[in-house]
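Moderator note: this is an archived Q&A kept for reference. The question asked for a predicted structure of one protein chain; the sequence and the answer are reproduced below.
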Amino acid sequence: MDMVQALLEAVPFAKSLGIEIVAYTPNEVKLRLPLRPDLTNHMGTMHAAAQYALAETASGALNLLIFGEQLGNLLPLNRSAQIEYRRPSRGTLIAHGELGDEALQQVRDAFAAEGRAKFSTAVALYDESDLTTIVTTVTIEWVILKQRSK
């Protein structure tokens, strides 16, 4: 099982929503959330909470790309989030998040120097039928700490 799939397996909420892996590289991740009746709001569009959960899961997957297997010994904490709902989401959503090589290295260097890192990741959500128009953007600030010994 690859690392991103392991993330989905380790987070029961993401798994229960039905979030799927589309693709990932060392710098980016794409996840998918099919629209189902139980994920809709009063207008029949994807519920805001489901959209946030998809984006947060994609952002968490970026943590795996930054820290790799080391993440199992770390404590990633979602510190804050900023969400902009731009248009109604009428179908299946694709989440796309990425970090450039320089940003990845800055986070790794900060963690190596201080034993913790604070950084933000941005995720864009697209309707699967129109991958050129952003439906929602979510920026999440993370704090990564070393796990304390038990």
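Archived answer notes: The chain has one domain: 3-146.
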